[in-house]
Amino acid sequence: MDEIKCLILKINLLNKTAFFIFLPTLMLSTVGFFMLPATGFSKNLSKPVIVINPGHGGHDHGAKGTEGTLEKNVTLVLANLIIENLQIKYQVITTRNGDYFLNISDRTSIANHNKASLLISIHASGSYHYKTNGITIAYLKKTSDLAVFPQTPAIKNNGNAYKHTSWDEIHNNQIQKSMEVGKCIHKKLSQSNLFPRNQLLHSPLSVLSGANMPAVMIEIGYLSNPIEEKKLNNIEYLSNIAKEISTGIDDFYSKAENQTIE
Ligand SMILES: [Zn+2]
Known about the structure:
Blueprint: E1 6-12, E2 18-24, E3 49-54, H1 71-86, E4 91-94, H2 104-113, E5 118-125, E6 135-139, H3 153-158, H4 167-191, E7 198-202, H5 206-209, E8 215-222, H6 226-232, H7 235-257
Parallel strand pairs: 3-4, 3-5, 5-8, 6-7
Antiparallel strand pairs: 1-2, 6-8
Helix pairs in contact: 1-7, 4-7
Bound molecules: zinc ion.
The site of zinc ion (ZN) has 5 residues, from loops.
């Protein structure tokens, strides 16, 4: 029975109703059957709004491990662990609460329309080299990077709201804060003995390019690495990642409150 570690997730939905979800470690592929947090809208605006974006979904399963672990399932489980940690202090919205496809502009639109103060995208990676490992936290640093990804979903989807504002102007406002969020999460992961290899970098990532708020993407490991695939199938390991990410987010908001972030 030790092999099957169950997690009880108490998820408060937006209407404050509590649901209990039993999530066996080895049933990640069935996660879509469970009731998960509501997606895409916010009622309580008195708390900071954070949008958690589990990567992939539906026919887009993302990276696949040699044991068959799918990125789309791992990201969904981790997203819900993070939501569980954050929902006391924040209004947390998920872009995806089941196994279905969403395109990138839908995801950033959810964050923009809810006036989120933070967007966290969760992914895992795959590599041709099976030994590649570690956690990567990425933020969009230069607006010139966007030439690689010319789409501007925030502008397109919000119509008049950003009609006279260039994407460069929108994103420039968020660069410093995005970097700060990344630093806070990176620091927490680095302080843990469990995650010896992790890095913070800037990257031209399309999922971050339409977000009108600080945004980072966290790649939590490589499913192409058999050792990491095993870890990413372990709910305790995911809980530990979720804890460090959540406390890193807390640190970011504490800094913002104390105005130590410009
Ligand atoms: Zn991915």
